[in-house]
Amino acid sequence: MIRSLAQSNAHFSRAVRKLPLGVSSNFRYWGDDRTIYIDHGKGARLRDLDGNTYIDYRLGYGPAILGYADERVDEAARGGMDVGGVFALSTEREYEVAKRISRMVPAAELVRFSNSGTEAVMAALRLARSYSGKDAHIIVEGGYHGVFDGVLWYADVKDWKKGSQRPPINAYSDGVPDLLKKLTHFTPLNDANHLEDLLKRYHQDIGAFLIEP
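The structure assignment produced for this chain is given below.
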C-alpha cells in the first residue's frame, strides 16, 4: 500500500508561509512533498495528519525516553502546573531531582539544569574549556550537539583520504563564523586509531571531546 501524505502536503503549503521551510527546525524538513506533520503520539509511535503510523526513534531528540502520553509523566506534569509552572527562581524539587540523578549517574557529582540540549552542550563545552584552558574540541562525525555556532559543522569523513591531516570541514548553515572552524576536529565513528592519532597531533589545543550517549 502506498503511503499518502496529502494532508501533510496541504499543511506544508500553509506552514511555509509563516515558518521557514514550513518547520521550526531544518532537521524536520525532509522536502516540500515529504515533510510530515504529527497529529499525536502514544508510547513509541507517532501518527501523522494522514493517519500513517511510525515508530519514533528520535524521541524528541532525547527527552521523551518514556515515550509519548505516558500516564505517569502526564500526571507529574499536571502536578507541576498546580504548583505554578516554571519560575525564575529555584525550588526544593530541583534538589530532589539532582540527588536522584547523582544516584543514577555517580560521576554527576553536581547537577545543573538547562532548557534545551543546545544550552546543555554550550555550558558543558564552556566548562571544559575553562578547566582545560584549551579552546578546541572533537566531534564524532554524524553526531548531533545542538544548533549553536561551535558545533554546526560537518566533515565528509567517509570520502576523506586519510593521508591529509584534516578532512574538509564545512558549516551546516550560512552565518556561522568561519573563524570557528579551526576549533573543530572530527573523528570517524568506531575508529579508535584515528582518534588516538588526532589527540596526539592536537592535544595541546583540544579541551573537550563531544560524544552522544
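Interim note for the steering committee: The mean pLDDT is 91. DSSP finds five helices and eight strands in the chain.
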